[in-house]
């Protein structure tokens, strides 16, 4: 399996639903997180998109030189740019980063936000447009000169002159729970993403997309987007979960759910149905907690527990067919270290080549020496 981390372009802090414990997300901070993820051995980072975020492409581009092996899963919004522009951006990023780009196709699910960006298409129309977009984008990235005339998009003799390093193109990721989204995934993408739903529901989505892809003669890999709250003990983890939403009151929940209710995203509606806006009933499956979704759109669930338990829950998803786990935690810098230190030793991770591109092999952890020339015994302190 591959473990990814998250760059919080929309803000970060120790609590949800309050400015208390918040921290500024500036370049130095996102660079800290990216460098930590790179050093710790995460396969990549998700760089989010949306009205509430800094721009994903500008942010990711700024982090290329600060990292060595880390891959960047960067969002493309089909309605906001032409496929040829998106293809040139992707090829350039991939070339300048040494082949470290992954592309996340995001159609958008908030009609209010979309209208602000000049998009006035229905849910079904957005997926039709995205299908045309991806058809053109994939052909361009494979070196074709593309002339295309569709319902939404048209291009004449379009080309990308400087190809991406990854061939036929940087891998395509995509998430969506509606029938239209699943068909799009089956037709075009390499990795289908789901948010953290209970295992039985995830298994059903995997089976549906796998069947649709097979009808097209294709195979699709699968990934999941989850928060994690992992600690040395189970009690500590659940205390941390409760502390995270300790400032979230009923008024805050009501306002957040009012905003999220305007979304026409099927996936968002599924997230909302897990907690129903009720703070008292948030454990929806063993160790799967829906508290984050009370006030946050998108991924709203977390795996909560001690390291061994959380690792076992991750393995349960892996047994369903999940290969990529995109994780996050609050605050993202500290939790990147905590998750790596507690979970990595317990999981069958795909190994990166730690010496590629001249990067040094990772130095073994030793802990603080308590006296000169005295090295502490494993698991003990002098």
Describe the protein's architecture and organization.
The protein is α/β, with parallel strands linked by helices and 382 residues long. Helices cover 38% and strands 18% of the residues. It has 12 helices and 15 strands. It has helices spanning 27-40, 56-62, 83-96, 111-116, 123-141, 179-188, 199-215, 234-244, 250-260, 266-275, 307-320, 332-343; strands at 2-6, 12-13, 22-23, 44-47, 71-76, 101-105, 146-149, 154-158, 172-175, 191-195, 221-231, 283-285, 288-289, 302-306, 322-328. An 8-stranded parallel β-barrel has the order 1-4-5-6-9-10-11-15, surrounded by 8 helices. Strands 2-3 form a two-stranded antiparallel ribbon. Strands 7-8 form a two-stranded antiparallel ribbon. Helix 6 links the parallel strand 9 (172-175) and strand 10 (191-195). The radius of gyration is 21 Å and the shape is globular.
């Amino acid at each position: 399996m591959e473990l990814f981390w998250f760059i919080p372009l929309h803000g970060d802090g120790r609590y949800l639903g309050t400015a208390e414990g918040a921290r500024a997300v500036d370049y130095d901070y996102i660079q800290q997180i990216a460098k930590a993820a790179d050093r710790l051995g995460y396969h990549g980072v998700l760089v989010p998109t949306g009205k509430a975020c800094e721009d994903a492409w500008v942010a990711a581009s700024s982090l290329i030189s600060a990292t060595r092996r880390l891959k960047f899963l960067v969002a493309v919004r089909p309605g906001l740019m032409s496929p040829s522009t998106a293809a040139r951006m992707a090829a350039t990023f991939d070339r300048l980063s040494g082949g470290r780009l992954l592309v996340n196709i995001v159609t958008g699910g908030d009609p209010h936000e979309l209208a602000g960006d000049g998009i006035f298409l229905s849910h079904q129309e957005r997926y039709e447009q995205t299908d045309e977009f991806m058809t053109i984008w994939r052909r361009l990235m494979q070196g074709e000169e593309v002339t295309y005339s569709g319902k939404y998009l048209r291009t004449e003799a379009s080309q990308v002159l400087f190809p991406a390093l990854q061939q036929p193109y940087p891998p395509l990721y995509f998430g969506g729970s509606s029938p239209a989204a699943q068909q799009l995934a089956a037709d075009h993408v390499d990795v289908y993403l789901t948010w953290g739903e209970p295992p039985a529901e995830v298994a059903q989505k995997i089976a549906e997309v796998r069947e649709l892809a097979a009808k097209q003669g294709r195979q699709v890999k699968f990934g999941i987007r989850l928060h994690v709250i992992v600690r040395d003990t189970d009690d500590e983890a659940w205390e941390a979960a409760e502390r995270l939403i300790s400032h979230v009151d009923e008024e805050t929940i009501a306002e957040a759910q009012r905003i999220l209710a305007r979304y026409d995203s099927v996936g968002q509606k599924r997230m909302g149905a897990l907690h129903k806006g009720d703070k008292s009933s948030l454990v929806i499956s063993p160790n799967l907690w829906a508290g984050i979704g009370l006030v946050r759109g998108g991924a709203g669930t977390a795996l909560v527990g001690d390291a061994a338990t959380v690792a076992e829950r991750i393995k349960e998803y892996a047994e369903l067919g999940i290969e990529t786990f995109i994780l996050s935690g609050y605050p993202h810098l500290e939790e990147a270290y905590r998750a790596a230190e507690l979970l990595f030793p317990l999981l069958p991770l795909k190994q990166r080549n730690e010496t590629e591109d001249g990067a040094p092999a990772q130095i073994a952890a030793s802990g603080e020496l308590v006296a000169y020339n005295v090295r502490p015994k494993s698991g003990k302190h002098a």
